[in-house]
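User: I'm writing a short methods note and want a consistent example. For Hflx-type G domain-containing protein, I'll paste the sequence; you return only the structure tokens, no commentary, since I'll be parsing the reply automatically.
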Amino acid sequence: MGSTYQLLDEINPRTYIGSGKVQEIMAAVANTGATTVVFDDELSPGQLRNLERALGDAVRLCDRTALILDIFSQRAATREGKLQVELAQSEYQLPRLTRMWSHLERQSGSGQVKGMGEKQIEVDRRLLKGRMARLRRDIEEVRTHRRAYRERRAAAPIPVVALVGYTNAGKSTLLNTLTQAGVLAEDKLFATLDPTTRRVELPGGKALLFTDTVGFIQKLPTQLVAAFRATLEEIKDASLLLHVVDVSHPNAAAQIDAVNGVLAELGVENMPTLNVWNKVDACADPEVVRAVAARREQTVCVSGLTGEGLGEMLERVSAKLQDSMVAVHVLIPYAQGELVDEIHRTGVVEAAEFGAAGTEVRAYVPLSVAQRLQPLRLQTAAAVEEQQRIEAAAAVAAGAARAADAAGAAAEAPT
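Assistant:
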């Protein structure tokens, strides 16, 4: 029905906006017949109550956080998603319980107990806290289940690539094109709330796991970050982040900053990252966008809808994963041939030679695999020579120290 804004040196602690702007909004509501007023920021409980009194009972007042939580509640499909959204809504609602039931007070106590009984708002607050405690217990069970799943996945390590990005950037469409995953992908906010993991085979036969995560948004409510921590923990266990950007969006730069802010809040801002500029086919001048991306080392242009650029993206993913792996040179006995297969599945093999004692392999593997291969490592000739040089130098130093001790003892001996 309409929109308005106000430039203020500081936020009005009572009504967020100035008193004159409140009167202006009241007049606009009366003239347009609007039934809902949405503020594009989070209102404090006091501001919410004062604005509700000013606008009247016929108008629903909603701030940015309440609107996002409402969208999330509509999108939640699984038990985990519903639990997380309900907890976030409860945490938001607790300090904002209205006094609409304050006229309903419990009977005062009998005998020596005097005074008013428990007010309805206090009952509501107590019940809400109890529900929040139950929700946290249920979510902790989900977190335990996810942790066990990740431990099983780590036992047979396959690199995990997490798709992160602003909501509606095209992460689910990209995953569907790569894997035919059948993930819900629609042109709307927060279409995906629950992480979906699918296996992807690279051209060289190497296997990866791609995980689609919940989309981020500017000024993401803190309640959502806390409630969705079990889901967002999937990002922390990833070997590589694919930051998917809707490069055709006019506010793409601001969306990138918003995603980076959430990643910093999760403590994963320094993880290996490949920037994926999606929807390049929807740009006004795709060639210019591709030219800009070509000048950036960690950026690739794709179209999740048409499949354009996905081959180059997978090559860049393979190269990035190799950079994050550990170089190993091992001799694997034929009796442990399953280790050779694991190296091929989880790492990048540079050379493999079959000898009398076993298979000599030079490869890059994840750290967990490298640690298991430690007893089978072979030292290169240069490494052996360096070790011998260090040991010789240590022997010379020890001999010099013994000679010095002997000379000192001789000097201190009585003549």
